[in-house]
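Exercise 7.
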Amino acid sequence: MTEITDIFFDLDHTLWDFDKNSALSFKKIFKEKQLKLDLDEFLKVYEPINLEYWRLYRDDKIAKEELRYKRLKTTFDKLNYEVEDELINQIAEDYINYLPLFNHLLDGAIDLLEYLKEKYKLHIITNGFEEVQKLKLEKSQIHSYFDVVVTSESVGVKKPNPRVFEFALNKANVTANKAIMIGDSLEADVLGALAVGITPIHLFNSMCNVDERVTSVQSLLEIKQYL
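Solution. The predicted structure, written as tokens, is:
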């Protein structure tokens, strides 16, 4: 990887601890809205439902507004907990507002960024919502590490669509053979990067599928071995 000059990161589940920050956001909402529902039980049901709706959103099968409402509605229905639509919509809005206010990063994130910034130009490519992702970067105080931040909303398509990666490469003024993409999603980050000639590094957990063709790590600090 001696020819590499630029590294692109995914944000959620890669640098920014989405699960922890999401749980804290819901904890705040449950308290404010006085929801008589166990938070851990809710999250156990909500998290896989959220992932499935994100897949639908990524594949352009639902709109942003549907994602925000339906992931909550489906979870409450599955838990047999009655919530009026008006309250669901309010929770959806509060969640988006509160989420970027929590700023926990995955273990090793700052250490890795400090290590890499001396050797490479660093960038972000994320499928998250424009207004939310920029706040996450600012509130977690990592925005200064990145030269280019590309959101799917700013491009008009989502990872793994090649246009997102091509847009990011052009904006960063780098060719694919000199870039690396680091992300947690096999479909969006790894296969998306491979499709345009970017070398991927897959940050995986026990719930991920692993592609034997690519470098895979279980922690951010393992990446130092390759860069």
